[in-house]
Amino acid sequence: MTVAVEPVSAVGEFHPASASDTARLGLRLAAALKPGHLVALSGDLGAGKTCLIQGIAEGLGVTDIVNSPTFVLLNLYAGEDATGGELTVYHFDLYRLGSGEELEDIGGIEFFADPHGVSLVEWADRMPEVLPESRWEVCLEHGTTADERLIRWRHLVAKKVHGREIA
Ligand SMILES: Nc1ncnc2c1ncn2[C@@H]1O[C@H](COP(=O)(O)OP(=O)(O)O)[C@@H](O)[C@H]1O
Ligand SMILES: [Mg+2]
Predict the structure, then answer these.
(1) Pick the CATH number of 33-165 from 1.10.8.60, 3.10.20.340, 3.40.50.300, 3.40.50.960
(2) DSSP category for residue 4
(3) Checking phi first, is residue 123 left (phi over 0); if not, alpha (psi -120 to 50) or beta?
(4) How much distance in Å is there from the Cα of 89 to the middle of ligand 1?
(5) Which residue out of 21, 24, 51 has the highest number of ligand 1 atoms within 8 Å of its CB and is therefore the one to mutate?
(6) Which atom of ligand 1 is nearest to the CA of 53?
(7) Segments in the chain below pLDDT 70
């Protein structure tokens, strides 16, 4: 069962005061995501990318424990879409990867296009060249106290001609 919450708008910002606030924003982001979407997260170490992703994954019906894949490039989780259909949640961490080409070589980019998947990508700003034009951009920053953060997001939608994305 996915959790019923108010989806976020296409553009917004939020000032969480705790890790649980951030995870709750993740639930609301999940409610706005559709199969095939990609979320590109950026922010320093400890900014809360994994914490936000834990909320997103919960909102996408993932029941497994979601951990940081920092020592792994990718973790896969079984989630579900809004109608209860199967949805694969791909959790990438590009921190240790040298280049977008490397990600391409190991076939990572193919998952971005899975119409029955959602990709959640930490350190996505390190290889913008491999990201699809249509994506959710989420930037996390530290705040003035240890538990405050600033989280900003926007949903970019590529222009399409006859159903195909154009630059
Ligand atoms: N408002 C907040 N949002 C997210 N994490 C927070 C917040 N306040 C404190 N934290 C703590 O900061 C750390 C964030 O870690 P993590 O989500 O792994 O960051 P990242 O993936 O960006 O490196 C966690 O230990 C978490 O408990
Ligand atoms: Mg992380």
Answers:
(1) 3.40.50.300
(2) -
(3) left
(4) 20
(5) 51
(6) 17
(7) 1-3, 69-70, 163, 165-167
